[in-house]
Amino acid sequence: MTDTYDLVIIGGGPGGYNCAIRAGQLGLKVACVEKGETLGGTCLNVGCIPSKALLHASEAYENVNTTYGALGIKASGVSLDLDKMMASKVETVDGLTKGIAFLFKKNKVEHITGTGRITGAGKVEITPAKGKKTTLTTKNIVLATGSEVTPLPGVKIDEQRLVSSAGALSLPKVPKSMVVIGAGVIGLELGSVWRRLGADVSVVEYLPRILPGADGEVAKQAQRAFKRQGMGFHLGMKVTGVEKLKTKLKLSMEPAEGGDTQVLEADVVLVCIGRRPFTQGLGLEEAGVKTDPRGFIETNNWQTDAAGIWAIGDCTTGPMLAHKAEEEGTACAEAIAGKAAHVNYGVIPGVVYTAPEIAWVGRTEEELKEAGVAYKKGAFPFTANSRARANHETTGFVKVLADATSDEILGVHMMGANVSEMIGEAALAMEFRAASEDIARTCHAHPTLSEALRQAAMGVEGWTMQM
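RESULT FIELD:
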């Protein structure tokens, strides 16, 4: 290890490793401290990437058994090899973690395995899994420690039958029944994986709707789509406990507004009520780094109140998204290097990788109404999109919200096949403060799913025309 650094980063997830690579590209002497055996953090090892691998594989499995027949493809003898599916997931993760390690070497970033803790101004103590502690001296410290699963009081996760999102990615067999606690992004994604593979899945949510934070119209249509697929919902319900029996789990719940207790039985219960910042044991208080009542590190342009200490990603406020952390990591490195740095927090897309997919960027109708912003709306259904009809993927729609006076795009909301890939165009338009007419008058290839975005933009001024 080098004795003195320009920058030491604690945490090797999306925020941390992007910060490290960018700092290395800018000529800084960088070390990245990661307590896990591999780089990539929660996202790459037990989150975004393995879940997407299983979502893709499970969707392909379901399509062979259900939708391909309508396309004239007959299949027989199709069976699930869960071990092979899991092995494919592991192979994907392994390749990507090695890719980050390669980029570290390429950009002269030192990867240090161990737990990092601030012990003084410009001092980071490293505790390895084995061996002696060491201390690094640095001009700047970036905290990129991410988040962890929020526990549910009275429910002890064992990662066997009572599982978190991490355990749900490695179940040894398909459960006959699963109850998902939490109708947010993670719960719906993982619940859909196991439903496709054969589990009877029910979702319990404290709020009276699914996908809190998403556009209300999108959430309602998404719930209808998931119910048609066989997923059950118990909304406005508070979980009061989970009893472990020899062969079953008994989940007790009651209406959030009060009422009689109801019971659901399941082989597996998945707890997905959110995540909380991982900020314990970092020496923050001693270093003068402030946190809010929920444990998030307080920052101003990624700088904490303590000189030379910065924070990015899930351990700070804002959406807990890997791409938000990546943006902050890159910008933070550039700021440390003395360059102009900026993150447009109003143009960070959100995606739910279910089938149909759900994606959005900008503000929802509910947010605009609450803020008293006058807006116009254009919408277009995939049932009228040529490519969607040809692909037999007609569930969903695209909605564009624009300022009533200036026509600047304020929000775009989508539900349908491949909208995770389409939302980038909307984000780019909003980054350049485009008007809905700018998208409406941009030629899109025909036939493509992306034409639905153009038609929705046309609809803002009432001149939608395609079938």
